[in-house]
Structures are given as C-alpha cells and as structure tokens.
Amino acid sequence: MSTNQDQQRMEQLIKELNEHNYSYYTLDAPTISDAEYDRLYDELVALEASLGNVLPHSPTQRVGGEMLTGFAQHKHLARLWSLDKAQNLEQLYAWEAKLKRAIQDYNTKNPSLALPDPTYVMELKFDGLTLNLTYERGQLVQAATRGNGTIGEGILAQVKTIKSIPLSIPFTEGIIEVQGEGIMTLSTLARYNETAEEPLKNARNAAAGALRNLNPSVTASRKLDAFIYNVGYAQGVSFADHRQMQQFLKDNQFKVNPYVIYADNLKELESELSALAERRNELDFLIDGAVIKVQDMRTREALGYTDKFPRWAVAFKFEAEEAETTLLSVSWEVGRTGKITPVAKVEAVELAGVTVQNCTLNNMGDIERKNLKFALGTLVAIRRSNDVIPEILGKVDEEQGEEIVFPTLCPACGSELEQRGAHLFCNNKLGCEPQMIGRITHFAARDAMDIESFSVMTAEQLYHECGVKDPADLYRLTFDDLIKLERFGEKKAQKLLDAIEKSKTRELASFLFALGIPNTGKATAKTLADHYRSLDAVMNATVDELIELQDIGLIVAESIVSFFQDDSIKQSISEMLEAGVAPQIEELPTAASEDHPLFGKTIVITGTLPTLGRDELTKKLEACGAKVTGSVSKKTDLVIAGEKAGSKLTKAQQLGIEIIEDEAAVLQLLDSQE
Ligand SMILES: NC(=O)c1ccc[n+]([C@@H]2O[C@H](COP(=O)([O-])OP(=O)(O)OC[C@H]3O[C@@H](n4cnc5c(N)ncnc54)[C@H](O)[C@@H]3O)[C@@H](O)[C@H]2O)c1
Ligand SMILES: [Zn+2]
C-alpha cells in the first residue's frame, strides 16, 4: 500500500473505531464483537507506528468514550486507565522486555533509588463496568464510571444497589478511592432472562447498561455484584506492595476475588494462564483474560503511565474461541411480542468444549452488515465471545451461496409483516400461535402469575388440546379437561388446577407484569401498582398522568394506554375477573414475628435514602411489626434519617433517640427477620 492509502485507511479505522467506542462505552450496545474490535484496533496501532503519525482524535490516545447526560460528573481523585494488552506469550515477554528496559533506565538515572527486579501478581480480568468508589472518613460518598479516565459519571444510587459494596468501612483516616468491576453473574443473567421482557444477550452489557440507567430500581432488579481490585487514591495510608494493598481491601470488607497469584517471574505464570483459559467457562462471571501487574508499588510509581495505560501492568487476553462451519439454514422465529428473529442453523461444530448448532444473527440489518445475504451453504466463521449464544462473524471466503430470503409474511400465521427499525413484526396477536403460546407461558412464569410447574410444553399442550389461546382461558380449565392430556395423571392435573387457583390472588404488580404490556418490565409494573393501587385505576390511566410517574417516559406511557384500549385485552381481563382473578394490593403480612428486633417499635423516617423509597421502607418496617409515624416524640424508638433530613433529625438528637443514617444498616435490621 502507498503511504497515501495507508493514511486513508488509518482515518477510516479511526472513524470506525470511534463509532464502535460510542456503541460500546456510551450506549452499552456494541455492534461488533470484542475480538473484531481488537483486530481493527491492532491494525490502527500498527499503521500509526509505520506512518509515524498519530492523529489527535485517534482512539489509541484516549480512555473510554463519551459520557451520558443525566448523571452528575465526578472528577476522579486519581486518573483511571485502560490496560496494555498481550494476546500470546510472545507478546507478554515483549511487554516484560520493555518493562525491564524502563526499570534499567530508571536505575541508571537514580542509582541510589534503584528499583528491584520485577515480581508479578496475576488477577482475573473481569469483564464488566469499571467502578470508582470514593470513601470519605469511612463513608461511601460517591461512585463513578471510568468515563474518559479523568471524569466519570456519578452513579452512587445505582452502585448502592450492589449488596457487596460496603456503604461504610472501618478506615476513617482520610479519603480513598478504590476501583473494581461491576458485574452480573451468569446465573443471575440466566434467571433474569427466564422471565425478562427483553432477554439480555451478554452479561457485560447487562451490567454496564444497568449501572448507567438513570433509574436505580432498574439497576436493583438486575442484582449486580462487584469485585474490587485496586486502591487508586489514598490519603492517610500507603502500601509497599500489592499484597499489602489487597490486605487493606479485605480488612475494609471489600469483596476481593480469591483468585490472586503471586509469582517471581513470568515463567511461573505460563501454566496458570493456560489453566485459566481452560477453566474460564466454569466461572459464574465473565472474564476476558488475566491482568498481570508488578507487585512493588515504588516501581509502579517510578514507571508511571503512557497516555492510555500503566507501564507496570498488562492484560493477557485469551485467544478467541472461533471455528469455521457451514451455514445450513436460517429460520425465522416469532416471539411473544410478535418480533421475528432470524436463527441460523450451522453444521455441528465443537467450540470451547460445546457442540454448536445454533447461532444468532440478531436481525435483518445484522445479516446485511455482515455480508451474509448470499451465504447459505457456504463456510462461515463463528465465535463464542462473551455472549450466551455464539454469533456468526462473516463468510470465510468470497464464495456466493444461496440467498437468505427475508420473510414478508409471518412464518407462523402467514400475516403480512411490518418492519420497525431493523426488526420485523407480526401484528396478528390473536391468531399467531407462537405469540399466543409465548404470552401464556409468560403469564404463568414465576415473576408473573407464578403458576407452579407450568412450562412452554404445558402451554403448547393446553393450546392444542384444550383450546387455551389466551391467559384468560386458563381459568376455565377443569379436572376433566386436564386428565385427558398425555402425561397428566390425577395428581398432576390437580396440582396444576391448584396452582391456577392460587394465582388468582397474586399481587397487582405481578398481574400487570403477567399481562405482557409492551415496554413494561417488572419494575414499571411495580411502579404502576404502587401508585394506582387498583387494576381499574391503571386501566384508566392517561398518558399525561403516567409520564408524571418516576421512570415512565412517553413511549412506555403510550404503550400502556394503548394496551388497555385494545378490545381483545379488555375482553381477556374482564373474563379473568369474572373467573375470580382478584389482583391483590400488596398487604402487610399479618403475623410479624415478635422476636424481630423492630417488632412493636415506633419509627420515624426523615430525608431520602439512596435506594429505598419511603413507601417501600414503610411497608417493610410495618411488615416487621413496627409502627411508622410522622413526628418525633418521646415515644419514638428509632429515627431513620436519609439525605436532607431536617428538623426531625435535630429533634431526635435533642431527645437522644436512636438514629440510623446508613441504608445498609437499615437493610440489615430488616433482614434480621429470617
Ligand atoms: N465491541 C466493541 O465495539 C468494543 C468497543 C470498545 C471496546 N471494546 C472492548 O474493550 C476493550 C478495551 O477496553 P477498555 O479500555 O475498557 O478495557 P481494557 O481491556 O483496556 O482493560 C482495562 C479495564 O480492565 C478492567 N479490569 C478488570 N479486571 C481488572 C483487574 N484485575 N485489574 C485491573 N483492571 C481490571 C478495568 O475496569 C479497566 O478499566 C477492547 O479491547 C475491546 O475488547 C469493544
Ligand atoms: Zn404471525
């Protein structure tokens, strides 16, 4: 290539990579795999080196991406960095050679302060969202994303939903900032997806998206976790080496992952690295490699940082799990909401210890973008990145195959499809089998009506044999209907009937979620139930009213209103009510245990707590047998004070009443009931 072409390619790569950074860091919705990204990135690094020219807007010169508006900005007390990377042992040793040269240079210039030969520590490289936590005199006062390394997004309320992050720590001498990774475990993701409106494909994006959601209750619903691995800024404490820093983290009750390996040289780590690569799929969280760091802190300080990463650490990235196979067919599946998704069948192939036969293709746009429109019967590359289902990367060679034909009619019911964005939809809600079966299955799911032992298979059987086409039909089933079914004995039939009967008194929030209102997940259903406290009221809510509620925007509000205007929905609901379905307003459990420490206590809540809403907290306290009152008096046993607590707090202090200002402590107290 001529220099001119190189120059053009370089600019092209910068443009592309910056777009990918935006999708990945800002939107938490990458459109290419990490390995594809890394390939482009490496190409850019090589070009910049060969041209001896680095443009100022190059992604190689900066950390992270643009920040979202809506969050307060937090200036990190010490900068946060990206990591240099090695993809194989050769690159790892090349990194070490650089490191040793830098140490030598330093020692020549500072003979009296000579640095020791490097020894290493190896940790997991968690694939989640970087968190920077600020503790002031022992209290968690801020939590932020990495952002551009200097300034991040303040996400304190979101981070406080992570139960393993301490809200206060024993170290109270000064200000510290610690870094870790917010993650979603794979088992939590799987459980979440069982009933999710929109299943999440990848735990990294699920965690990042949840933490950067303006609504902390959405974050809470994802049940995130975090591993802490670094003290970035410390006042009043210092460490000689990594071991001491780790000990400090543990002493302060941070969740430190037990996988930490100390080694005198890289050779010792070689077998660890290959063992880890083998084992990575057994972990319950995503990692994309290991991080190797120099143990000695003085060496870290002396060597410092490039524009982008520390010179004393390197990420060892695992080899991609890729394979080649033949694309056999693409089928189009209809989801509960009518969305049509392409699913690719490939010739069975081993990939990272599992046999792969199905791959995702996401949507029509994805097929076009990957140049797969004419790929049937040809060889394609597939990869298991950190996603649940492997994806097709593209064709292996230029060979033309058969065309993947985009459907115009629903593959299930034959209705005309409608294109919305990159997706196709079947609008035949009441006559399209997979949609109906999907709706019934969703209705019965655990987080919805919780009809025990109900599965997709049950829904299919009932649909075909008993004419159950709508959730309301479930409430018409009789023992005689069920006993006729294959694999149904008396016991099983009765059990299902009992479970259906029991579902009649589910709480309103679960019932609303069960209905499958578009764009309305569990959290929104709960908001509706808590606010309106009756089904009728929710059904009659107007858009203007709804958008006043926390976290309900115009799209969701309109979805809700038009859902309840639909005659078939109204019909279905009225049939259910007639059959005895009576959604409950979350009542307080009648028998609170007298052993509970809060039983019989008179409590006042003042100010705002980070995640617990006042209504919610009141309910929880009352459920423990406490009485929640509005004003502080001598009869008050306890005051729970959040931010902006005013005169009530002062009064409580004057009267010497016990005060709790820490949400974690409140939660702990509530929890002591089990
Ligand atoms: N698919 C895409 O479109 C896309 C776009 C941009 C970036 N990416 C991916 O992100 C990578 C680069 O991003 P980056 O700069 O965010 O991350 P990085 O790979 O440079 O690693 C730095 C991060 O590693 C994390 N980390 C996890 N465990 C750690 C530990 N034990 N010690 C220290 N740090 C630890 C930290 O959060 C730190 O911020 C790329 O290589 C690519 O794989 C993908
Ligand atoms: Zn259809």
UniProtKB/TrEMBL annotation:
Domain of life: Bacteria
Active site: 125
UniProt keywords, alphabetically: Coiled coil, DNA damage, DNA repair, DNA replication, Ligase, Magnesium, Manganese, Metal-binding, NAD, Zinc
Occurrences of domain BRCT (ranges): 593-674
Annotated residues for binding of Zn(2+): 410, 413, 426, 432
One Pfam family named in its UniProt record: OB_DNA_ligase
Catalytic reaction(s) noted: NAD(+) + (deoxyribonucleotide)n-3'-hydroxyl + 5'-phospho-(deoxyribonucleotide)m = (deoxyribonucleotide)n+m + AMP + beta-nicotinamide D-nucleotide
One MF term in the entry's GO annotations: DNA ligase (NAD+) activity
Binding site for NAD(+): 34-38, 82-83, 123, 146, 181, 293, 317
Coiled coil region boundaries: 259-286
SUPFAM superfamilies: BRCT domain, DNA ligase/mRNA capping enzyme, catalytic domain, Nucleic acid-binding proteins, RuvA domain 2-like
Enzyme Commission designation: 6.5.1.2
Cofactor: Mg(2+); Mn(2+)
Functional description taken from the UniProt entry: DNA ligase that catalyzes the formation of phosphodiester linkages between 5'-phosphoryl and 3'-hydroxyl groups in double-stranded DNA using NAD as a coenzyme and as the energy source for the reaction. It is essential for DNA replication and repair of damaged DNA.
UniProt similarity note: Belongs to the NAD-dependent DNA ligase family. LigA subfamily.
The name this protein goes by in its record: DNA ligase
Organism encoding this protein: Paenibacillus septentrionalis
